[in-house]
TrEMBL record:
Keywords: Methyltransferase, Restriction system, S-adenosyl-L-methionine, Transferase
InterPro entries found in the cross-reference section: C5_MeTfrase, C5_meth_CS, SAM-dependent_MTases_sf
GO biological process, one term: methylation
Annotated TM spans: none
Protein name per Swiss-Prot or TrEMBL: Uncharacterized protein
Keyword DNA repair: no
Keyword S-adenosyl-L-methionine recorded: yes
Sample GO molecular function, one term: methyltransferase activity
């Protein structure tokens, strides 16, 4: 078993499901997400099912800048850097817009209460 596969299996030594997969390239890791969902309480059973239902049939996709944009709450029309790695880094350093909106709304409500 390769070093990357060992790292992938180490990720699943916990009770909460984590359906991210990493592929090592020459300089970095590429992040993936599973296209199907599995959920088991037993970590050993989860590992077996993950390998059987997601890893071996390759039911995963690379995380692209478009996915990061959606996850962070940016609107569909938002334009981001054309290079995927740069855009993902910028989204990773951003604050989710819906969170800022709801915090600001609650602060305004708090400050306007007599």
């Amino acid at each position: 078993m390769s070093q990357v596969q060992n790292k992938q299996l180490e990720l699943f030594n916990h009770s909460k499901p984590l359906e991210l997969i990493f592929k090592q390239t020459r300089f970095t890791f590429i992040d993936f997400f599973a296209t199907v969902s599995i959920n088991y309480d037993n970590p050993e059973e989860y590992k077996k099912k993950f390998i059987q239902k997601i890893y071996k049939p390759q039911k995963f996709k690379p995380i692209m800048a478009q996915h990061c944009c959606k996850l962070q709450g940016f609107p569909d029309w938002f334009e981001f850097h054309h290079k995927n790695s740069i855009a993902k880094k910028k989204f990773g350093n951003s604050v989710p817009i819906p969170v800022v909106y709801h915090i600001a709304k609650e602060l305004i409500n708090f400050l306007t209460i007599p």
